[in-house]
Design a protein that fits this description.
CATH architecture of the largest domain: 2-Layer Sandwich
Structural class: alpha/beta
Number of helices: 16
Strand order of the largest sheet: 3-2-1-4-5
CATH class of the largest domain: Alpha Beta
Order of helices and strands: HHEEEHHEHEHHHEEHHHHHHHH
Length: 313
């Protein structure tokens, strides 16, 4: 809900809403002597107030509580931000869940001396997902723009990216791209893979990675990433990245944490930006997010203060 809409619903001016929001800043002072044992952070597109227009969301991995919105995702800014917390607080952190962006690793090791790095499973799967998609697009181009193969690969691309265990093989329907033949989804996948040996290999790699991640199978992951010989170049590149972060991916199999809640909050932030037509001021942007997210430390602090005030009266 936009600030203007809130003002309309309560029959006040928009400036009154802003003044009330700013009055809550007394509840957002961070405690630099404490951090949760398990944290996660992920970047998101914010505004011109941040370098590269990218900021960072910090969350408690265990209870999915938003701890803070950090202005910039650059290593220099992140280091400056986290050094506000004393060493005792940073030493309490046991796990840090992040994506596969390499520059974060050295920073995490420096700032959180006792922390284990956990590679987020979504970003792990995305590596192979994007590589498979590149092979599919290359196959389309090689087949010719208006060819049957190109049209079929364009129309049914989602089936290739679907977990093979969830591909339907029971229900049949007419498929325009296959001369109206009665086919189930598995038939379509088989015909698409028959169009290119490279596509078939990339698909096999992607499905094995899905299996390793879903089953939390370290042995299967090690076997898969040991070598990508004979694979299309996009898969080889993805495999190099996964092999580099293999220990962190296995940590994901051991610990119950992921950046799923972080990604969910990032989607809420997108909605906030859309209804507010963007933000020019970082402090207002941060405040709006911390107020809008129900489980943020700001909203919980505010509720606690209201309860204390009610009991005192």
């Amino acid at each position: 809900v936009s600030q203007t809409e809130i003002a309309r619903q309560h029959a006040v001016c928009a400036m009154s809403v802003m003044r009330f929001a700013r009055s809550t800043t007394t509840y957002i002072h961070s405690n630099y002597h404490w951090l949760p044992k398990n944290i996660a952070f992920d970047d998101f597109k914010s505004g011109n107030f941040a370098k590269s227009k990218m900021s960072m969301l910090l969350m408690d991995s265990a209870n999915h509580r938003v701890l803070d919105i950090i202005r910039s995702r650059t290593n220099r800014f992140l280091k400056s931000y986290f050094l506000q917390y004393d060493l005792k607080a940073r030493a309490l952190v046991k796990t840090v869940t992040v994506d596969l962006y390499s520059p974060y690793r050295k920073l995490i090791e420096e700032l959180f001396p006792n922390a284990i790095i956990i590679a987020d499973r979504f970003h792990v799967v995305t590596q192979a997902y994007q590589a498979l998609n590149k092979v599919r697009i290359t196959t389309m181009k090689e087949s010719g723009k208006d060819s049957h193969n190109s049209r079929a690969l364009k129309r049914y691309w989602k089936l290739l990216l679907k977990d093979s265990d969830k591909v339907d093989y029971l229900h049949y329907s007419k498929r325009n791209n296959f001369k109206n033949a009665q086919l189930c989804d598995q038939d379509v996948v088989d015909r698409l893979l028959a169009m290119s040996d490279k596509l078939k290999k990339a698909y096999g790699y992607y499905q094995k990675l899905l299996g390793a991640v879903h089953q939390r199978n370290a042995s299967l992951l090690k076997e898969l990433t040991a070598s990508a010989a004979g694979m299309p170049e996009p898969i080889k590149k993805a495999n190099r990245t996964l092999k580099k972060h293999r220990a962190e991916i296995i940590n994901n199999f051991i610990f119950p944490y992921s950046n799923g809640p972080v990604e969910g909050t990032n989607n809420k932030i997108k909605a906030i930006k859309k209804t507010s037509y963007g933000f020019r001021n970082f402090d207002n942007f941060r405040l709006r997010i911390l107020l809008a997210v129900k489980n943020s430390f700001l909203s919980l602090n505010y509720k606690n203060q209201l309860q204390k005030a009610a009991h005192s009266n």
